[in-house]
Design brief:
elongated; 38% helix; Alpha-Beta Plaits; 2 domains; 4-stranded antiparallel sheet; Molybdenum Cofactor Biosythetic Enzyme, Chain A; alpha/beta
Length: 253
């Protein structure tokens, strides 16, 4: 199977006590899911974990063996609880070292600034030994890559800038295409129809997502597949079935 035909799968580890406590609302998952899908990289699993070294090590080692890429967000700042970098080093059995290239980036950034490159900020220049740096055009402190693990910042604007820097280097695969409609009826009224279509078109993923609009129940139906021909056939059958049972629907963009 060629690289273009292969399915490239990934996982995301969201690291931070503030996410799990509810103090901070994660804004990175939605962005990464959309970007990865557009590139042809399937996001297959997401974990949110605490700033705990053993938990980070366990999650990284578990996921990096199962997926083509593992992305992490959070925990690479200058404070005592930013332990992601050291944890990644431990996960790979590598030394946690001062990265001289990262140090030079920070020295240039803080040179002439009112802020000093103190010991705390210098922590952001430490990486696992042999790591490749990920450019950070906003605040300069880089992310890094070790094998198939890509370590990004937790601050949304910085994370996005880092991802844009690394995205062109990623191996991509078959893109997952989708078609969707909104039907003005509850899931229970169309469940049997969806089951029949899913059984016939087993290579198409069919998702149903209920909503309430103006006090009325409705359902968004989303069909996904990497095969456009099969996707269109399943979609046409779905529309025909909605017509047959006289369910009103709207085609979504």
């Amino acid at each position: 199977m060629s690289e273009e035909q292969a399915i490239v799968r990934s996982a995301l580890i969201i690291i931070g006590n503030e996410i799990l406590s509810g103090r901070t609302q994660d804004a990175n998952l939605n962005y990464l899911a959309k970007q990865l899908t557009a590139l042809g990289i399937q996001l297959s699993e997401v974990r949110a974990i605490r700033d705990d070294m053993e938990e980070i090590v366990s999650s990284v080692n578990s996921l990096r063996k199962r997926y083509d890429y593992v992305f992490t967000t959070g925990g690479i700042g200058p404070t005592h609880d930013d332990i992601t970098c050291e944890s990644i080093a431990k996960a790979f059995g590598r030394k946690y070292v001062l990265n001289l290239k990262a140090k030079k980036i920070l020295e240039d950034y803080y040179d002439g600034s009112s802020n000093k490159l103190n010991e705390a900020r210098l922590r952001m220049a430490h990486t696992p030994e042999g790591a490749l740096l990920v450019d950070n055009p906003i605040s300069k402190a880089p992310g890094f890559i070790v094998e198939n693990v890509i370590v990004l910042a937790g601050i949304p604007a910085v994370m996005r800038a880092m991802f844009e820097s690394v995205a062109p280097t990623l191996r991509t695969g078959r893109r997952i295409l989708s078609k969707s409609i909104s039907v003005m009826t509850g899931e229970g009224d169309i469940a049997s129809v969806l089951t029949d279509i899913q059984l016939k078109w087993d290579s198409v993923e069919i998702g149903s997502y209920p909503f309430v609009k103006d006090g009325n129940y409705g359902t968004s139906l989303v069909l996904r597949s990497s095969n456009i021909k099969i996707l269109e056939l399943a979609y046409e059958e779905l529309l025909q079935n909605m017509d047959q049972i006289s369910v009103l629907y709207e085609v979504e963009d």
